[in-house]
Design brief:
Helix content: 10-25%
Oligomer: single chain
Mean pLDDT: 89
Strand content: over 45%
Order of helices and strands: HEHHEEEEEEEEE
Distance between the termini: 21 Å
Length: about 140
């Protein structure tokens, strides 16, 4: 199952188009600089239809628990904002999508490709990829 493949510890290895993505989110310059330099670790646990994400980095630790198909409070690890969102499984991908009232919050898609965790985040027509390797 796709969810089981997400489980484990993951360390950020690289990112693509992150600066343009942060600009699209209207992230202030000091926060943007810190985000571009960050090398966070993500720990994922799966319990049935509930996924727990623990993101750890220089700015602290953020924990997020989501249940497929249910609305939850999405915590943005870059801005610290909290918005309503819903998590769904689309094929082998975990998709976290903010509500229509939050156009500057990213849609995040998590999938495992070639043994790496790929997180594609999109705001409007701007997207970036963050590539994580097993920690």
């Amino acid at each position: 199952m796709a969810l089981a493949g997400l489980a484990g510890g993951w360390q950020l290895d690289s990112h693509d188009n992150m600066a343009a993505f942060l600009d699209a989110m209207e992230v202030p310059a000091p926060v943007k600089a810190a985000a571009l330099d960050a090398k966070p670790r993500v720990d994922v646990t799966v319990d049935g239809n509930t996924i727990n994400l623990k993101m750890s980095g220089a700015r602290g630790t953020l924990e997020q628990s989501v249940t497929l198909g249910e609305v939850f409070d999405l915590k943005n690890p870059i801005t610290g904002g909290v918005k309503k969102a819903v998590a769904n499984l689309e094929g082998d991908k975990l998709v976290l999508k903010p509500g229509e009232e939050s156009p500057k919050e990213p849609k995040s898609v998590y999938e495992v490709c070639d043994g790496k965790l790929v997180c594609t985040m999109s705001v409007g027509d701007v997207s970036c990829k963050r590539i994580f390797v097993k920690a």
